[in-house]
Write a structure and sequence with these properties.
This protein has 401 residues and is of the alpha+beta class. It has ten helices and 22 strands. Strands 1, 2, 9, 10, 11, 12, 21 and 22 form an eight-stranded mixed sheet that branches. β16 and β17 form a beta hairpin. α1 runs parallel beside α5, α1 crosses α10 and α8 packs across α9. The radius of gyration is 21 Å and the shape is globular.
């Protein structure tokens, strides 16, 4: 049977990972026809464009994991990419600060992890901390010199432009017909049908739904967590980036302080369950999406395991005073009046059936398909090497067709 293919590789998702994949495919295999379908009217409207803008060093991640390898490599590549295309960025370094004695062993563990991952780390006492951040208080800290900030939305736009791919915005996927002997046909909400030989699923907050539309059971569900931010009315209080020591039992970094490329200081995020996959406020509720989360056994197991942590996050969400208290552990001078509400983001967190929060990047393959099923932070930092890995897999599938 002869099929008129519109492209060789069809990528669903116009965030930074999907666009980095298109960019990597056309560089690895010139002449490969790539089409990207993005349901929004422009790129990077969700996770890519609603985060802290931090180029992560890779210090937090288990040595040998995809996150560790790709974050360390990706941070250096992201700085080089921004410099090449004149995209706003800065390598500022950051402090990770222990404010309680119980955190000191975890801080020392990060020093060891950083060294295993090949990251330069400097241990600091209180007086040395003041050289970097005079207003920050703590018992001890480490300075990570390779952390920076950049404009990830501008990076995504440049990847789209440089990829040579056909980018179709306003193209929401509603149906997928995959036939292993032929390829994949995708129908969008306006009735358009796009046919490709291979499908790459980089749909972020909707990646599990796209996998199921393609006929693959991903073995996980995306449970959305909203991260709420404030801007600091007195940005002069913070010179760079300041983080608490993270809780190793939960894949979130805690409320931190980030001076962005625009000079504003953002504080956050916390992590509360969202009532919609694009639920950027408590007023955004999508019953069907809530139903999917409630029906997934892993959601209940996750809730039983982490309810104490979650209760604290919810309290900080509904109480500005509680949020301020969390900030004051690092920055005692801050007051509730210093915190100005800012735009929120939503993290696409993959939760397995047993309630485990997927900690590493998760990429799976099916007939004619490659699915990116977990790519939260530091995916933006690591997007260039992640894109190459996805491209490698997609081209291998293409070669076998």
């Amino acid at each position: 049977m002869r099929v008129a293919y519109d492209c060789d590789v069809l990528v669903i998702g116009g965030g930074i990972v999907g666009l980095a994949t298109a960019y990597a495919i056309t560089r690895a295999a010139p002449g490969t026809r790539v089409t990207v379908l993005e349901k929004e009217r422009g790129p990077a409207r969700h996770q890519t464009g609603r985060n802290s803008g931090v180029i992560h060093s890779g210090i937090y991640y288990r040595p040998g994991s995809l996150k560790a390898r790709y974050a360390v490599r990706g941070a250096a590549e992201m700085v080089k990419f921004c410099a090449e295309y004149d995209i706003a960025h800065a390598v500022t370094g950051k402090l990770i600060v222990a404010t309680e004695k119980a955190e000191l062993p975890r801080l020392h563990g990060l020093v060891q992890r950083g060294r295993e991952n090949g990251i330069p780390v400097r241990e600091l006492g209180p007086s040395q901390m003041a050289e970097y951040e005079p207003q920050v208080r703590g018992l001890a800290a480490i300075h990570v010199g390779t952390t920076g900030v950049c404009d990830f939305v501008a990076v995504a736009r440049q990847l789209a432009e440089s990829s040579g791919a056909e980018i179709r915005y306003g193209a929401q996927v509603v149906r997928i017909d995959r036939r292993p002997a032929l390829g994949v046909a995708v129908r969008t909400a306006d009735g358009t049908v796009v046919r490709g030989r291979v499908l790459v699923n980089c749909a972020g907050l909707h990646c599990d739904e796209i996998a199921r539309l393609a006929g693959d059971e991903p073995g996980m569900r995306i449970i959305p967590f909203r991260g709420e931010y404030y801007s600091l009315a007195r940005p002069e209080l913070v010179h760079g980036l300041v983080y608490p020591v993270p809780d190793p039992a939960f894949p979130f970094l805690g409320v931190h302080l980030t001076r962005g490329i625009d000079g504003d200081v953002h504080i956050g995020p916390n992590a509360v369950p969202a009532l919609a996959r694009e639920g950027y406020g408590w007023g955004v509720v999508r019953p069907r999406e809530v139903g999917v989360a409630v029906a997934w056994p892993g959601s209940w197991r996750m809730a039983r395991r982490h309810w104490r942590y979650g209760a604290g996050e919810l309290r900080r969400s509904v109480s500005k005073a509680a949020f301020t208290g969390a900030v004051r552990r690092l920055l005692p001078a801050v007051t509730p009046d210093d915190l100005i509400p800012a735009s929120a983001g939503v993290r696409a967190q993959a939760v397995l059936r047993d309630g485990t929060l997927a900690d590493d990047f998760l990429i799976e393959e099916g007939p004619r398909t490659v699915h990116v099923l977990n790519a939260p932070s530091p995916a933006a930092t690591a997007s260039l090497p992640i894109g190459r890995e996805i491209a490698r897999r997609a081209l291998a599938v293409l070669a076998g067709t």
